[in-house]
């Protein structure tokens, strides 16, 4: 723990404090509560050895055995210098940063499923190994939670479509090493994005996300709010971070929020 703090909380770093707890319901809920009470500032990191009530998108449950993964949340306050309409890039930015960090620290190629799933290859098959969840914390704060399956074996997976870094052939499954790599990468990308005023094109975030996005080039079904859905080919990520679908009737429909189902492999 002391070594983790020394490696992350230092002059010029985004990270201001690192707190590790043995067990909690949800690091996101805990950190949002701390932020609202004024008990955490920008750069606060909360890590749990075990989460009992972890959540994914659409309030789905995220569960894993104790010490089998990385479960952490960070508090960011991009308000000064970044217009709120550009904050939608934060989960995509986190995906790019996590993928880059895991590539270096674990030697695993991690693809991004729009908007916030982390995919790995297990025996040539694409599996979900992690996810990202963003929640507002007051007017100027955002808490971003990340969950990554690290050491889970086949028998421990919550569903057959899940994966883990170990199953994907990671060269390292040391959680402290992985966490340092991911947080340093997130510090780097967040700094670039803020310096560009949240302009994802200017800081090359838009380009980096598109390059690592497994959704692009596929036929997908987008489940939209209001029981709507759209089927089309995912052709681009626009300047607002939306997924652009080319529909069979020749239209291009931007999707800003929804559940994406990959119907056919790219290419």
Which helices and strands occur, and which strands form pairs?
Blueprint: H1 2-8, E1 17-24, H2 27-36, E2 44-51, E3 54-55, E4 61-62, E5 69-76, H3 90-106, E6 111-113, E7 117-122, E8 125-137, E9 141-149, H4 175-195, H5 205-212, E10 219-224, E11 228-237, E12 243-246, E13 252-255, E14 259-264
Parallel strand pairs: 1-2
Antiparallel strand pairs: 2-5, 3-4, 5-9, 6-7, 7-8, 8-9, 10-11, 10-14, 11-12, 12-13
Report on this model:
With 267 residues, the chain is an alpha+beta fold. It is 24% helix and 33% strand. It has 5 helices and 14 strands. The chain has helices at 2-8, 27-36, 90-106, 175-195, 205-212; strands at 17-24, 44-51, 54-55, 61-62, 69-76, 111-113, 117-122, 125-137, 141-149, 219-224, 228-237, 243-246, 252-255, 259-264. A 7-stranded mixed beta sheet has the order 1-2-5-9-8-7-6, sandwiched between helices. It has a 5-stranded antiparallel beta sheet with strand order 13-12-11-10-14. The chain has a two-stranded antiparallel sheet with strand order 3-4. A hairpin with a 3-residue loop joins strand 6 and strand 7. The longest helix has 21 residues, at 175-195. It is globular and about 55 Å long. The relative contact order is 0.14.
What is the 3D form? globular
Order of secondary-structure elements: HEHEEEEHEEEEHHEEEEE
Q: Quick one: biggest sheet?
A: 7 strands, mixed
Structural class: alpha+beta
Strand residue content = 25-35%
**Amino- and carboxy-terminal Cα gap:** 45 Å
Low-confidence regions: none
Number of alpha- plus pi-helical segments? 5
Mean pLDDT, as a whole number? Answer: 92
Report the radius of gyration as a whole number of Å. 18 Å
Strand line-up across the major sheet: 1-2-5-9-8-7-6
Helix coverage percent of residues? 10-25%
How many strands? 14
